[in-house]
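Researcher: Checking consistency across runs. Here is ENTH domain-containing protein again:
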Amino acid sequence: MGSWRKAYGALKDSTRVGLAKVHSDFKDLDIAIVKATNHVECPPKERHVRKIFLATSMTRPRADVAYCIYALSRRLSKTKNWTVALKTLIVIHRLLREGDPTFKEEFLAHSHKRNLLHMANFKDGSSPLAWDCSAWVRTYALFLEERLECFRNLKYDIETERLMRSPQHSAKQLLFRLMGCQPEGLACSNYLIQYALALALEESFKTYCAINDRIINLVDMVNISGSHWYDPVLREAEV
């Protein structure tokens, strides 16, 4: 059964690549997305991810960036395969982390209209492994959703490692989502899950440090400014 599913997945990927070559106005981008998010149970290949980065860079028209978001969200919403779903989320995560600001701005604008990362009902029941990995895919999507919400509310980007405003609910909720990214069952030993988990764990440390540094700064304000600052600052820092 597993071999049949792999063969069927490979056939679907090759068919999509063939269709993109013939029908797509964004041929190179569509092919890169299909190849980066294919059914092979390994992390997205770097050369395909880099092509997607290039297609969403500041030198490209906004229409190209918007199409990339559309293509990724379509891939995410249509698939029933946990590997394809997870690899698509990894590509989105890396674009948010390492891509040009234009992608993040466009993604925020599109997600404000409709929830592009909504995976609450996603499940792949084809095997016990797929079932356990599906649960983690949903958790990972929630983290990415919270990451985006935190940037929208606080203008806080994890990659800057600085939290300029007080650690409000959004930042604390982001840390909560990060801490909840522990895989369970058969997903624990899966390499693709571990790859995505490593991306999330790196950000959990940065987020904790940013919140901690901001609280220390607030405490310093109390010490310098006197007791009349104490109550409002304490409320700001309250967890």
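Researcher: Does this match what you'd expect to see?
Model: One thing to look at in this run: The radius of gyration is 20 Å.
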